[in-house]
Amino acid sequence: MIAVRVAGQGEKKELLASSDGGKFFTEPHYNGFPAVLVRLPAIDEDELREPLTGAWRCQAPKAFVREPSF
What we know:
Blueprint: E1 2-5, H1 9-18, E2 24-25, E3 35-38, H2 45-59
Antiparallel strand pairs: 1-3, 2-3
């Protein structure tokens, strides 16, 4: 299990709603905090890449954050 930061409560609700509880979930300890818990055995690398990248973007200095140009 890993905790992943999200941009806000809206994104948290979206991730939790998109998952049947198998991949993303929360616990009372995280109520009010913008993060979800991820069951690593239930998610593949490609699915995990987006939430991890988003978590980095939430915390990184704005000077380092830019959209990829591919």
